[in-house]
Write a structure and sequence with these properties.
Layout lengths: L2 H20 L15 H9 E5 L5 E9 L2 E6 L9 E6 L2 E10 L6 E5 L8 E2 L11 E6 L7 E10 L5 E4 L10 E4 L4 E7 L2 E4 L2 E4 L3 E6 L2 H14 L1
Parallel strand pairs: 2-7
Antiparallel strand pairs: 1-2, 1-4, 2-3, 3-6, 4-5, 5-6, 8-9, 8-11, 9-10, 10-15, 11-12, 12-15, 13-14
Amino acid sequence: MNRLTAVLIVAFSLFFSAGATAGSDTQLITTNEISFTHPVRASRNAAVKIISADGGHGSGIYVIYKKHRAVLTADHVVDSGSIYRVTANGNEVFGVVVWRAADADLALLAIEDGLQQEPIKLAHVTNLEAGTRISYSGFPSSYELLSVNGTISGFDSRGYILMQGFGWFGASGAGVINQANKIVGVVTALPVESFHGHPQVLESLILVTPLQLQHINQIGAVLSVLK
């Protein structure tokens, strides 16, 4: 028996013996009992689910700009109409699409009062580079709320930020923030590549549409007219 094999046997023995002695004392930890790191906590507190009339859903982030509050999301999440249900933590309001970016997969919803989420301030982020740590919280598939930590892996020729992390359908529109709690962009898509002639979703690589300064200026102009 070599040294590595011996170490693995001891490790597995400790694992299974610990599990065997847990017995009836084992308890599940609820979400409210988990202490998240600050950027993840900020993204969770601002995350919303956007539901269309046909029951489909995407994600979004509750934002504030000069005291005006709204929901930022991906344009393709709200491309089937103008009015959507916006939910978070058991609260539900209606949102109306008031802005779409002509050059990017971004959109903004004006919403009713009633959300108890904590909005994140819209501000332009500069000096993005590979290795920057970023996070998002959203509603992939049937999960109520998942938070993902990742890093910027690079940028592609179409202008997307390439985030190394995890994504799935339903997370589109989630706000991606950096360690300073500033919005970098929104989750747009997962790349699909061909593998031996079959399409393969790369769920560990996320395409993020960056939030540019001109987008923030356009949003500010729209919100100043509405309020």
